[in-house]
Write a structure and sequence with these properties.
Blueprint lengths: L3 H11 L2 H8 L6 H11 L18 E3 L2 E3 L3 E3 L12 H12 L4 E2 L7 H7 L5 E4 L5 H13 L4 E5 L9 H6 L9 H8 L2 H9 L18 H9 L10 H8 L3 E7 L2 H8 L5 E4 L13 H12 L4 E5 L5 H9 L4 E4 L1 H32 L17
Parallel strand pairs: 3-10, 4-5, 5-6, 6-7, 7-8, 8-9, 9-10
Antiparallel strand pairs: 1-2
Helix pairs in contact: 1-15, 4-15, 12-13, 14-15
This protein binds flavin mononucleotide.
Length: 376
């Protein structure tokens, strides 16, 4: 396994197509998904030579938490469908690597499952549901589990369609079409790991939504629960519920970034949800410098979308991010090899980042700025 692409190829063989495509795909024509990658690839790094780079330090603080790398694992719905207990395995790998892990509202393992599996506090990502009582209960559970930050995702008030999921019958529970059954039958290692996992459905929801005990009714409940009426005003309600560190995820526009900076949140994440929501939106990396410039030091800037290597992390940091989140890069690791696969994904990115920093002539995160980029 020399790079994230190797993990991706292994995951593709191991994970049923329906779930692999769910992780890999984007919304509609996937133009934003592709732009996330192509725009990163276009950014050239500036090679410097004969600089003493023998004292390299990759450590940093992320919203006040010490981290071994400027990296965190992004919230991923149904992460545990890449490998049984996927969220527990990923949180352990993040803990061992000394970086934050963020659990999704739509995870398979519940908040309490992850809290029991790790000592390091993790972050909890919240989708505000129409059922505000349920949202409040989720925030209270995150507080009881001693989560160190609440990550509020604001770019999913309505759901962008992912054609691959529709074509594959990717629902929860999955549509039991012949093709899906045959596909799973050819992947017994995956099936065993998922069967042996603690849970097979939305762990944060099952048993917590009144009258929704079976998987079918839960899935229906969720699809009607994303709230198109949500506004910045609702952030005051969240603020009152969660006085701790707040991260606002899903900002692409400068005006929205300025509004986010005024909320008193600790950080915002420049993100287009990995190209899974507004198809036609700019790539995350093209939005990053404008947002970073607009908010200055008022709020920490995090970044995600298309990160597949340590070089990409360096590019994003050079353009104003303090921290990068990775989604698919670690999901491929999880699908390829469970906890060891996630650890491998983090290690690959770490090593690439370390060597690239050295070849750009920098020793620490603080030194990274636009000067590490080569402009034509
Ligand atoms: C399979 C999948 C599920 C996701 N689920 C969530 C989620 O539940 N909540 C959320 O805030 N973001 C979710 N995201 C978006 C990620 O947190 C992150 O923004 C995105 O993956 C970054 O792009 P990358 O995958 O290219 O690194 C999901 C992304 C993927 C690929």
């Amino acid at each position: 396994m020399t790079c994230i692409e190797d993990l991706r190829r292994r995951a593709r063989r191991r994970v049923p197509t329906m779930f692999f495509d769910y992780a890999e795909g984007g919304s509609y024509e996937e133009t934003t998904l592709r732009a996330n990658r192509t725009d990163l690839d276009r950014i050239k790094l500036r090679q410097r030579v004969l600089v003493d780079v023998s004292r390299r330090d990759l450590g940093n603080t992320i919203i006040g938490e010490k981290a071994a790398l400027p990296l965190a694992l992004a919230p991923i719905g149904l992460c545990g469908m890449q490998w049984g207990d996927g969220e527990i395995l990923a949180s352990r790998a993040a803990q061992a690597a000394g970086i934050p892990f963020c659990l999704s509202t739509m995870s398979i393992c519940a908040i309490e499952d992850v809290a029991a599996a790790v000592d390091r506090p993790f972050w909890f990502q919240l989708y505000v549901m129409k059922d505000r009582g349920f949202s409040r209960a989720l925030v209270e559970r995150a507080a009881a589990a001693k989560c160190s930050a609440l990550v509020l995702t604001i770019d999913l008030q309505v759901l962008g369609q992912r054609h691959r999921d529709v074509r594959n019958g990717m629902t929860v529970p999955p549509e039991w079409r012949f093709a899906n059954i045959a596909n799973i039958a050819m992947r017994p290692a995956w099936a065993l790991s998922v069967l042996a996992g603690k849970r097979k459905t939305f762990g944060n929801l099952a048993g917590h939504v009144r009258g929704m005990e079976d998987v079918n009714s839960l899935a229906q409940w969720i699809s009607g629960q994303f709230d198109p009426s949500l506004t910045w005003k609702d952030l005051e309600w969240i603020r009152a519920l969660w006085p701790g560190k707040l991260v606002i995820k899903g900002v692409l526009d400068v005006d929205d970034a300025k509004l986010a900076a005024r909320t008193g949140a600790s950080a915002l994440v420049v993100s287009n949800h990995g190209g899974r929501q507004l198809d036609g939106a700019p790539s995350s990396i093209s939005a990053l410098p404008k947002v970073a410039d607009a908010v200055g030091s008022d709020i920490e800037v995090m970044f995600d979308g298309g990160i597949r290597s340590g070089q990409d992390v360096l590019r994003a940091l050079a353009l104003g991010a303090r921290t990068c989140l990775i989604g698919r890069a670690y999901l491929y690791g999880l699908g390829a090899g469970g906890e060891a696969g996630v650890a491998k994904a983090i290690e690959l990115i770490r090593n690439e980042f370390d060597v690239s920093m050295a070849l750009c002539g920098v020793n620490s995160i603080r030194e990274i700025g636009p000067q590490v980029l080569a402009w034509d």
